[in-house]
Amino acid sequence: MKIQVRDVPPRSVWALQQGGVHPLLAQLYAARGVRSMDELDDGLGKLLPPASLRGSREAARLLADAMAAGKKICVVADYDCDGATACAVALRGLRLLGAKNVGYLVPDRVIDGYGLTPPIAERVKATGADVLVTVDNGIASLDGVARARALGMQVLVTDHHLPALKDGQVVLPAADVIVNPNHPDCSFESKSMAGVGVMFYVLLALRAELRERGVFGRPAGSTAHDVAGVGAIPQPKLDTLLPLVALGTVADVVKLDANNRRLVAQGLRRIRAGTLPAGLAALFTAAGRQALQATTFDFGFALGPRINAAGRLSDMTLGIECLLTDDAARADELARMLDGINRERRDIEAGMREQAQLAADAMIDEDEEPPPAIAIFDPEFHEGVVGIVASRIKDKLHRPTFVFAASQAPGKEHELKGSGRSIAGFHLRDALDLVAKRHPGVLLRFGGHAMAAGCTIAEERFEQFEQALQQVAHEWLDAATLTRRLDTDGPLPAEYRRTDVVDTLHREVWGQGFAAPTFSEEVEVVSQRLVGEKHLALKLKHQGQPVDGIWFGHTTALPARVKLAFRLDADEWQGVKRVRFLVEAAEL
User: Fold this and answer.
1) Domain boundary residue, one of 242, 276, 310
2) Nearest-angstrom CA–CA distance, 386 and 376
3) What is the pTM of this model?
4) pLDDT by residue (tens digit) across 261-289?
5) Which of 286, 292, 334 is nearest to 314 (CA)?
6) Among candidate residues 247, 276, 305, the one where a domain is terminated
């Protein structure tokens, strides 16, 4: 492990401090590329305009026409937290804007697989739907969109994933409208927006379209009617949807660029003020967290996993219904069910992770480096948690990793479903595309991003896939890329080792691409002991002053003096709140 310190442009620090930013925050922001106070303005007026998102106006017209004609709209969601929040935002938002006939369908991970497939299109049509709207999926669903259109439905694709490739060329579905910041012809600045963010932007565009049509703001007593023929309504406030947008954005681990940070900050602000859906409030309670003190860590490590668990092991309908209900008792019941499913998911994951680690260890000689890419399959693995296990193995070995499980879908028992996670410098979706070109027939289906991707292969082709992936990794990855590095913010000034500073840092928006502060410096290890058999509790001296530390999941003793990378945290004992260091790594 190489611990390195981020560059901090002094001019940016000075500019931020002159704007009134806390000196420590000014350093942290500057190290993450913030150059001016304008970038820190999280007001709604600073959001990128919806009209700049390609297809948003056309989507708004399609939906407004459908509402005017009383058509039935069906939302097809994905089965992760982004998909669930996007679905809830779509239904809540459309109903706020006056839609009377809106439903949803969420695919089953095992039976249906990912995305809009022809059978799903047929099930949507069977509900009587006239308009099919995808959220967080659809950009690669060529056959599903074609089938929906053939059945006479209009199709609106809202997605943020990369389009499908055929012979190295982008291929788009034949939808009526596509809204996706990663559309090859879209110039929208925030390419990292999550699926829930895309749907929120479509609703903003729809509200503008309805406003232009005179739907909102009729004078009191007016006899004029709106486009749906039911009388004008006050213009709805869509900011009530921002808590859900914030949750889905953080949980999907998309890059927190300036626009995404604004969306998350606005959602957090409303949650902390107590303005949040009943389901979110119940999830905070089930997770033992305080909504009034909500942080991005709560989204990523408490609420998001509980919603994701439904899609991994059960039915994401539970998660969506939890986010849709306004009944506190119903929300509490669903949140407790999701909490129970998440506990089951953790048990399954723990066993799989141990098996996967043993398999990975078997691939590595004691004195040798791991291969440049890892592929693991075990017949006992559960396909619902292969992505989480791949992420854990990737973090431990610092190698692109795929973990496979046998498909449980009827008639697909000889197929393997794999989920991959990557490291910086290795574009996973492009790697799969190269494998597909070099070895036709090995990949039955694939898709994804640079850092996360999924694929399906025949069981008998697993070794061929493993060898092909490792060959690409050999060609693309050099020793520098394969060396684990941890970017940090350098030494922590002693005057900031305070609980109020901890609180200040926790309230900021941190996440993918805008990493939470991690400090690094040499400290003295006064004492150390194992707690819970797998965590190292530490008594440290930081710049001559005592401070507690904890290294979760680490059992190897440290030397008397060591360079540590750590995050700031606080724990409470007998009513006294004290700073402690959460150790992330050691440079030995």
Assistant:
1) 276
2) 10
3) 0.91
4) 999 999 999 999 999 999 999 999 999 99
5) 334
6) 276
